[in-house]
Every structure is written in C-alpha cells, then in structure tokens.
Amino acid sequence: IRKIGVLTSGGDAPGMNAAIRAVVRTALHNDLEVYGIFNGYLGLYENNIRKLDRQDVSDRINRGGTFLGSARFPEFKEESVRRQAIKNLEQHGIDALVVIGGDGSYMGAKCLTEMGYPCIGLPGTIDNDVPGTEYTIGYNTALNCVLDAIDRLRDTSSSHRRISLVEIMGRHCGDLTLAAAVAGGAEYAIIPEKPFSEESLLRALDKGDSKGKKHAIICITEKITDTHELARRIEAHTGQETRATVLGHIQRGGAPGAFDRVLASQMGAFSVALLMEGEGGRCVGIQNNRLVHHDIIEAIEKMPRPFNQDLFDTFKKLV
Ligand code: ATP
C-alpha cells in the first residue's frame, strides 16, 4: 500500500486526535501518504478528503474532540452510497482506511471491507461498549470527568443532607457508571446489565438513613428511566431533598488524559502496521495489557463485552 485514509465517526471522544496523529506520523515514518476524511462517512461520500502532513497533527495530542470532525450518516447503510464513497477513495488513490469510532462505525468498516476495500477499526468512544477490547479510546478521560462531577456533588450533598442522582452516559453499557460509582464512593449504581428495582433502591436508601448516612449518591446510566421523575419519587418516599444531575455532553469534552493518549498512540501506530502487513477487516483492541486484533465481523457478531461482575460485587460490599 502507498496511501491510507483516516476518519473519525459516531460520537466524538477525547483521544481521537491522538489516534489520528499516531496514524499520520506512523504512516509518514514509513513513507506512506495519508489522507484525512472530514466528517466521517458523510465526508467520504461527499469527497471531503484532503492530504495530511505532519504539521496538520501538530498541537493536537492534547485536544479533545476530533479535528477531522465526525457525523452520524445513516445513509451509509445503502450500498449505492458506499459505492460512491469507494469511488472517491479510488480517485485519490487511497488503498486502505483507518476508521476510529464505535460499533456503528465498525459496521460501516465491515461493509467497506466486504466490498473489497480494506479497513481497520479503532475503538473510539467514551461508552467502552466496543467488542474485542477491554478499553476504548476516551473512556478513561470520561471516567475522570464523571468522577470530578461526583466529588463536587458529594461536597454540596453532604452539606445539605441531600440525595444526588447522577445520570451518566454509556448507552447500553454500564462500565462508566459502575467504575464511577466505585471510585466516587456512591451508595447505589443502576446499570443496564442489572435489572432495576425501584423498590430495592428505596429500601437501600431507608437502610442508609438508619445507618446515619448524611447523604446519598446514586449513579444511573442514561436511557434506563426518566432520571428527573425518579428523583421526584425518591424525594416523595424519603422526604429528603433529591436532585437529579444529567451530566450529558460535558462527559465527552476536555483534554484526553494520559491513559487515553497512550492508548490512542499505540492503537494508531498498530493500525498502520497491520495495513502494511496486508491485513484488512480487522479491529484493534487492548486485552491483558497487549495490543490485539480481531476479525471485525466476528468481533461485532460473536464477542459480547464481558460484564465485570467482580467489580459489581465489590461495589455492593463497600456501600
Ligand atoms: P458511538 O458509540 O460513540 O455512538 P458509533 O460509531 O457506534 O459511535 P453510530 O452512529 O452508531 O456511532 O455509527 C456511526 C456511523 O457509522 C453511522 O452514522 C453510519 O454512517 C455508519 N454505520 C452505522 N451502522 C452501519 C451499518 N450497519 N452499515 C454501514 N454503515 C453504518
């Protein structure tokens, strides 16, 4: 291969810039040309493609978001749209593509690979919900952001004997919520992997009251229930002031932490090495502290992300 493309897709995550930088610098180090595709699969379809040099990724490693931009572009599920995308890549002479994004973006990469266009997927999302890896780029930074918010809520909650309900991102994955609950010393965690019983939550709060707890922090993953409504019901049951805080996109912004910068740099460099070895249709991960790669289709279809039951059990003993 002589020319590779790189794009970011789906929700942005801190560390995506570090991954792009690693792809660009590793490619240039190996005398390959690199092209940036702007705004994910939409830019691929619209031919929003530009050659990148080493200065294009200067001063980026410490920035959140993605300077290539990202987009949701459901039309990419249509074969005719993907055919146009491949035509654009061929026009630039691009031989292979690195796609940085979540499992939806992996589906796009899988489709392109099946149409004869080699892609490597890198896991970039704060949700930590991508198969074939223990950690995604952006997760650790988001976790520290959530933790900072919980620490702040704890200060004010304990001063006012208040109950704080904190809604955390993750879509269908409770990793961010559970880890933040453990690290933040929360009283209760409501996550998608475990059935939610409002009754047992209220019972736990009653128990906490009798233990003499001054406040309670409850972490809940988004999309499980209406968090503001739940706060109102908790207040009605306990008679204690209860506030819901929906952290929202705050969790996605900010400078990537050291862990995500290192992970992104390693994964970006590894993706170029794989393409140079002639690999395509692979996704990169980190497992047992080693970089690994899996067939992207097998990963999506057959590798459910394991739930950390041990951490959940530990959490329950610590409240
Ligand atoms: P996040 O986890 O942060 O939301 P994601 O990559 O899962 O990231 P999606 O919106 O699901 O985010 O997917 C990103 C893009 O990938 C979509 O907008 C679409 O362009 C493409 N895509 C998703 N599913 C498919 C599919 N089945 N076939 C082809 N392309 C797809």
UniProtKB/TrEMBL annotation:
Pathway annotation from the record: Carbohydrate degradation; glycolysis; D-glyceraldehyde 3-phosphate and glycerone phosphate from D-glucose: step 3/4
Subcellular location(s) of the protein: Cytoplasm
Originating species: Natronospirillum operosum
Function: Catalyzes the phosphorylation of D-fructose 6-phosphate to fructose 1,6-bisphosphate by ATP, the first committing step of glycolysis.
This protein's record includes keyword Signal: no
Name of the protein in question: ATP-dependent 6-phosphofructokinase
KW Disulfide bond (keyword) present: no
Principal cellular location given in the protein's record: cytoplasm
Cited Pfam families: PFK (PF00365)
Binding annotation for ADP: 21-25, 154, 185-187, 211, 213-215
